[in-house]
Amino acid sequence: MSMVRANGLSVHVEQVIPPDAVAGTVCGAHGGAPTAVLIHGMASDTLASWYLTLAHPLAATGLRVIMYDLRGHGHSERPPEGYTLDDFVDDLAALLAALDVTGPVHLLGNSFGGTIAFGYAARHPERVAAIAAVESSPPTAAWFARVVRQLNNAATYLPREHALAEIRAERGERASRRARMAREVLAATSLVRDLPASRLPAEERIAAIGCPVLWVYGGDSTVVELAPEVRRLLPKARIVTVSGQKHTILVDQPSTVRDIVLSWLRQECGVQPSRPDTAGPAERDGQDQRSAPESIR
Known about the structure:
297 residues; globular
């Protein structure tokens, strides 16, 4: 397990280094391998969702892949307070400095991880080469109202005695494990209080983000309802909706998300696979998050 000190916290970081250098010009390449930073979602998620899905396929294109557990999540330090959007963006900025990442980066975010990516890009547009967001939104008032409502519902429901058993019976063991993680985070931190108090960037700063942007939505997810707002703010962004999928599309359909993201990176940034086997561990071995390396369980 790799722990990095950033913004006053011990942050759990995992990296996948590309097997070979990729010839040619790649967005964000300022000496050495260009870098992709993968940011997971809020409360019920960890970096494992990226490790088992897109991390290795992205590294196979020549990208240095960095994943980290958000503050309060996974193996990262869990301070009792400090969970506004600015706190998460500050953590990302400090982590990049601690890892000596100096060139523009590709940011990939799942759910609220995409919001953090856009919060960082609004503040540091020159540091971002491209953004791919899965089931996410920029930090707008409409999105935050939705996220806060979900957190409040979870904080009310998950502490109930039979909540995890009900989730297991209805949605399976993996959903139950994710719910247990969320219950622990919500019980031990001020996340539910802090996030609604977040300072949101002005819409003009979001609209000014000029790098290539990709959005991936599940057609059966309620988050896809925000696609028109995304289109209004970022009219040049590419929006892909996958029919029949819900909010957990990243872990439910990793090969579909992989193909969408890699095709977009190839077209927008010239990123090319350096070897034919671009499947991640979960796809090669039929594993789920229980089969992640010990350091990221």
